[in-house]
Amino acid sequence: MPEETPDVIIIGSGPVGCSFARDLVDAGKSVLMIDAGPQHSVRYGEHLKNAFLYQRNIDQFVSVIRGNLTPLSVATRNDPTVTLDPSAYRYDTSEYSGFQLNNQNPLQRENENLGACAATYVVGGMATHWTCAVPRFDLDLERTWKPAGAAGPQEYPINSADMDAAYTAAEQRLKRTTTAFKDSARHQLVKKVLRDAGFDVKDLPLAVERRTGKAGEFVTWSAADTVLRGDPDLAVPGASGLFKLMPEHQCLKLEHDGRRITGAVVRDLKTMEESLYRAKAYVVACGAVPTPQLLYASGLHERLPALGRYLTEQPMAFCQVVLRQPLVEGAADLLRTVEDPEDRDYARRAAQRVTDYRAKQQKIVRRNQGQYVQQAADPLPFRKDDPDPNLYIAASTARPWHCQIHRDAFSYGAVPPSIDTRLIVDLRWFGISRPRHSNWVEFDDTMKDTFDMPQATFHFKLTDAERAEAGRMMADMQKVAAQLGGYMPGSEPQFLTPGLPLHVAGTTRMGSGEEKEAVRTSVVNPDSQVWGFDNLWLGGNGLHPFGNAGNPTLTSVAMAVRAAKDILSKLPRTK
Q1: Those residues with Cβ within 8 angstroms of residue 74's Cβ, 6 or more apart along the chain or in another chain
Q2: What is the arithmetic mean of pLDDT over 358-362?
Q3: pLDDT tens sequence across 70-105
Q4: Helix axes 464-484, 185-196, angle to 10 degrees
Q5: pLDDT tens-digit map of 396-444
Q6: pLDDT band at 574 (very low <50, low <70, confident <90, very high)
Q7: Which of 65, 67, 185, 539 is the most buried (most CB within 10 A)?
Q8: How far apart, in whole angstroms, are the C-alpha atoms of residue 85 and residue 339?
Q9: Catalytic residues
Q10: Beta carbons of 32 and 266 less than 8 angstroms apart
């Protein structure tokens, strides 16, 4: 049994859980953080892409992402494998409906599945490999919603002034910037071409810091360890007696008396021994599916009818383009025509670098021709350390999709080694779906997932209107792509497997109003406190109530900033 009782137990070690921890420890409260995943870095929850190798070759990071994603519901089929060796074992599919192993799920309907939806079980969560895009939700699109048949739009649970203040705090915590890639020649070139074509392209807000000195080629991507920075630096194991993080410890359920959480049953995944940990307050922030899964396993679904309901996920279109030859050859001249005051100096410097680098390579070519030597000369005018472009077109009511124009590693879209990656630009268009009671994640007690928790089964469909909007989104992406170049073979415009954005939301939905009514359609109040429980708070993307087009992490951290204040205001009264 644990010897010490902390003030707060936090389940989940991603940026959201770590935001809670940072504020609570700064206020003098003791925190025990539990995560089912192993620790992969010296500092708690570092971004794995910060390694030298992956910054030099981003495409090698694809395998790291794939290796850290655990699919949550894999639909199985009973179709016979007719070419199977006749002597091999087989079973009667009329008697056995299917098998369940490693989240393979015979109850999952393929046409309702979020087949690519996954969780990352590691200290730091998905922030160990995320893109670090941190846009604010648009006030008129993502923080406003008019349900079908309603007289008017619903109000966002958190008012605009409070939300903006929380955003500012979250942006500081995540080291948000829009300037880390402005020196890039390709960034300025793509921006110039698309703005000339009439697209409102801006610098993508990112959670990142550009390194200095000789390391200026590289950046430090923000992650859970960034959020834990401070005095003391909680990302350093043992830095504070008020903070303890236990990797490979899984919370199996929360015990409660109907009004208060009385303990957390935790399993040590190395010994498989179970212990009961107690605290004054509890925070669950372990993902948009694992969080409601834990609450379900704890029996809270009997008191929270909206648990797992109102699920949203984004339809996503993707393509890769190879920059058109005239754009590459005329890069310096185009960059010298940039007149926007925010970009002019960056573009002029980039133009000079392109000119100087091109001249240096052509000198090598001439020497090779005159002396019959073959020193390697770079055919591109962009230096090898030229940063990748990182741009976006913000979501709005007029264009209800978030558009990222950049280069990054994902579990898809890797570039073959025969193609120079400096010529590639990734286009990722994220749409929006709206909350509906019929879209939900179901948990089944008769089947267990890899972690012996109730198996998740998805029930998700887009409406006819959302499908039509996705078609318009695809057409829009193709218009942008046409300005830049031709499609990379294998990465022509396509819709990706549902769930691949990894932006599931709504499963622990935030609501407002009187508890008796609000609990029917939401799980937490505007302070992220679970309806009907005095000492339980939630965090993460599951709280977003209206669906989202932009990346959701910044908003989740902002909600955690508010929620931590609420915990501190009530913690002295908890026993």
Answers
A1: 102, 103, 104, 105, 108, 115
A2: 95
A3: 999 999 877 777 888 989 988 877 777 777 788 999
A4: 110
A5: 999 999 999 999 888 777 777 778 999 999 999 999 999 999 999 999 9
A6: low
A7: 539
A8: 69
A9: 503, 551
A10: no
- Res 148: pLDDT: 82
Alpha helices in 287-343 (DSSP H): 290-297, 325-329, 331-335
**DSSP state letter for 543:** G
Helices H / strands E in the chain, number of each: 13, 26
Q: Please provide the DSSP assignment of 544-555 as one string.
A: -SS--SS--HHH
Matching CATH number, 1-79+100-175+222-310+438-452+504-575, of 3.90.870.40, 3.50.50.60, 3.10.450.50, 3.30.450.20: 3.50.50.60
CA gap 276, 357 in Å, rounded: 63
Give residue 559's pLDDT.
Answer: 98
Checking 564-568 for CB contacts under 8 A at 24+ apart, the result is 564/19, 564/20, 564/23, 564/24, 565/23, 566/527, 566/528, 566/529, 566/537, 567/8, 567/20, 567/24, 567/281, 567/283, 567/537, 568/23, 568/24, 568/27, 568/29
pLDDT of residue 573: 60
- Whole-structure pTM value: 0.96
* Cβ pair 406, 304 in contact under 8 A: no
Report, as an integer, the average pLDDT of 62-69: 93
> Which of these, 501, 508, 530, 500, lies nearest to 441 by C-alpha position?
508
Overall size of the chain counted in residues: 575
User: Which region holds residue 29: left if phi is over 0, alpha if psi is between -120 and 50, else beta?
Assistant: beta
The whole-number pLDDT of residue 410 equals 81
Distance CA 288, CA 544 (A): 10
- How far apart (Å, rounded) are the C-alpha atoms in residues 410 and 548? 20
* Whole-number Cα distances in Å, 206 to 130, 194, 339, 389, 412: 11, 20, 24, 12, 21
- What percent of the chain has a predicted confidence (pLDDT) above 70? 98
Q: What is the DSSP annotation of 315-327?
A: -EEEEEEEEPHHH
Residue type, 268: D
Taking every pair of C-alpha atoms in the chain, what is the biggest distance, in angstroms? 87
State whether the Cα torsion 246-250-253-259 is positive or negative: positive
Burial string for 80-93 (b: 16+ CB within 10 Å, else e) reads: eeeeeeeeeeeeee
Residue 318 identity (one-letter amino acid): F
Q: Is the pLDDT of residue 277 over 80?
A: yes
Q: Rounded to whole angstroms, how far apart are CA atoms 204 and 43?
A: 27
Give the end-to-end CA distance of the chain in Å, rounded to a whole number: 19
Q: Are the C-beta atoms of residues 186 and 388 closer than 8 Å to each other?
A: yes
